[in-house]
Amino acid sequence: MKRTKKLLVVAIIFSLLVTGTGLFVHAQTDKEKEREELEAELERLEREIAEAQRDVTATEAEKQSLQHQIDRLQGEINHLTAQINRNRAVINKLGLQIADTQDSIIRTTNKIEQSREELSEILRAMQAEGRTSTVEILLAEDDLSSVFGSLNSLERLSDETRSILTDVKDLRRSLEGYKEELEEDKQETERIARIQEAQKREEEAARRERESLYEMTEEEYQRQVAEKEELEKRAEEIRNRLFELVGVPDTEAPTFEEAYEIAKWVESITGIRPAFLLSIIQQESALGKNVGQCHLADTHSGASVHISTGQRYSNGIHPSRDIPPFITITSELGKDPLKTPVSCPMSVGYGGAMGPAQFIPSTWQSIRGQVRNILGREPNPWSIRDSFLASGVLLTNSGAGSRTRQGEWNAAMIYFSGSTTNSSFFWYADQVIDRADRFDRDIEVMIQ
User: Fold this and answer.
1) Listing from the earlier edge strand, what are the strands of the sheet with 304-306?
2) 192 and 269, same structural domain?
3) CB 148: neighbour CB atoms within 10 A?
4) Residue 356 CB: number of other CB atoms within 10 A?
5) CA angle, corner 270, sides to 266 and 271, nearest 5?
6) Same domain, yes or no, for 163 and 187?
7) Residue-wise pLDDT tens digits, 288-335
8) 3-state helix, strand, coil in the chain (%, to 5)
9) Same domain, 197 and 296
10) Alpha carbon of 305 to those of 17, 293, 316: distances in Å?
């Protein structure tokens, strides 16, 4: 009976253990599935954001084109207005000149009439003199010279009067001709002014039409910007959630903005581009979905065991290359090497990567001194801030400090594979560069 109860208890405990393990594995599967779904959603949103950006850019170009047309038309309208005003001034001036000329013609005509009357008087005097006989003139004058003087004076007076009359008539004809020219100039200027007025009305109508189109385009532009901002907001929410799913304890997981601030701090020390550093960290964490899911089980063979399932891996940590530095690192940080989480091995190679930046112990050991000198204390690969800085140092040592596309691509290759020539790992560097480009756009939106 006791044996039966004991077996029953064992069966129940085993059942609970199996069930509990199943629930944990299921929870892990759900978490990974959630990440995959979020990554797919983020990728789709980024495509939509890129398309929205193209629409915004095209609409912005259309706005600029319309604004340019409006400015050009306004410039032409201003030019026409100036010409019209100048022509109006010319017309007014010509009107005054015509009026002055008309007055001169009137005065000249009056002078002609006056001269004609004077000449008539002279002619009548000459006729009167003509009716007087020479004997009478001789008898009237004291001497002969006086007689000839009187006759010559009358003839000279007649000639001068005729000459003045002729000059005055010529002046009137000249003034009348000048008046005709002024009137023709005035008519031509008025015609040009009417044409310019009509042209100005047409261009003002065209400007109003462009302004109406500009207002419509501005509304479309604002709508597109709002849609793009909404997409970016959703994408940002997903990125924040993704950073919480990279295998780092929830209490330590940074948001995208917090991660960017850390990356900016690393940039101030190493010169590395924040978007590139964030891309490397994201790539490493995404690859290591099992970050921190194993413990070292044997310090001699390097075997590790899965924390939740108990699965054993013979290739847990490289025994000669990585176990000695791992023991040193954990010891100096006061950690138990057999209870400190590391990555489980993937399908090929070894596991044993530490923290969110996935540092292999031997790699961490190679740059630990540099990081220690910067921090003034022993760095911790499981610390978000320390691991970001260490990644920045390592990547800068590999050429990322150049901030060129090729320099960063080479650094990503060295970070992952140790060289830049292994074509089997080109995909890794390509993905890092592409993600860095997306992060750059995200950062630009975030800091505006």
Assistant:
1) 294-296, 304-306, 312-313
2) no
3) 12
4) 30
5) 95
6) yes
7) 444 578 999 999 999 999 998 999 999 999 999 999 999 999 999 999
8) 75, 0, 20
9) no
10) 17, 9, 8
Q: State the DSSP code for 401.
A: G
User: Is residue 300 classed exposed, middle or buried when 0-12, 13-18 and 19+ CB atoms within 10 A define those classes?
Assistant: exposed
Sequence length of the chain is: 448
333 secondary structure, DSSP code: T
- Domain count of the chain? 2
Strands (E), 189-310: 294-296, 304-306
Q: How far apart are CA 103 and CA 97, in angstroms?
A: 10
> Is-contact 445 232, C-beta < 8 A?
yes
**The tokens 């190493």 sit on which residue?**
270
Cα separation, 327 vs 345, whole angstroms: 18
Please check whether residue 243 is in contact with residue 256, taking contact to mean a CB–CB distance below 8 angstroms: yes
pLDDT digits (tens, 9 = 90+) for 119-175: 666 656 655 555 444 455 445 545 545 545 555 555 565 566 667 667 666 776 777
Q: What is the pTM of this model?
A: 0.49
C-alpha closest to that of 422 among 440, 437, 432, 410? 410
Taking the C-alpha atoms of residue 439 and residue 442, their distance in angstroms, rounded to an integer, is: 5
93 and 159 co-located in one domain? yes
Taking the CA atoms of 249, 251, 257 and 260 in sequence, report the sign of the dihedral they define: negative
* Judgement on whether residues 155 and 250 belong to the same structural domain of the protein: no
User: 232 in helix, strand or coil?
Assistant: helix
Residue 248 and residue 365 share a domain: yes
Question: Helix/strand/coil (H, E, C) string of 336-399?
Answer: CCCCCCECCCCCCCCCCCECCCCECHHHHHHHHHHHHHHHCCCCCCCCHHHHHHHHHHHHHHCC
163 lies in the same domain as 105: yes
Domain holding 341, by residue range, is 242-446
Taking CA atoms, 369 is separated from 70, 317, 323, in Å, by 64, 22, 18
Tokens of 241: 């959630």
Q: Which residues pair with 306 in a beta bridge?
A: 294
